[in-house]
Design a protein that fits this description.
Order of helices and strands: HHH
Helix content: over 70%
Radius of gyration: 13 Å
Number of strands: 0
Number of helices: 3
Structural class: mainly alpha
Strand content: under 5%
Shape: elongated
């Protein structure tokens, strides 16, 4: 079980990732999702959002010359 301070940190990093994702700052979002998953690998919402971002980045790579 995580300590309250670690949960707060995980929530903060995950929230930042979501905001960066929404703002289109995809590389920053990726870094923050990865950090959040290091803190809590079992976070289902963070894992889903990270996977969605990875698919989006893959699409962008395929469509960029």
């Amino acid at each position: 079980m995580m300590a309250a301070s670690q949960l707060d940190q995980c929530f903060s990093v995950s929230s930042s990732a979501g905001l960066y994702h929404r703002w289109g700052k995809l590389e920053l979002a990726k870094k923050h999702y990865e950090l959040s998953l290091q803190l809590d690998p079992e976070a289902p919402g963070t894992r889903e959002n990270y996977n969605m971002l990875r698919r989006k980045l893959d699409q962008l790579k395929r469509h960029t010359p």
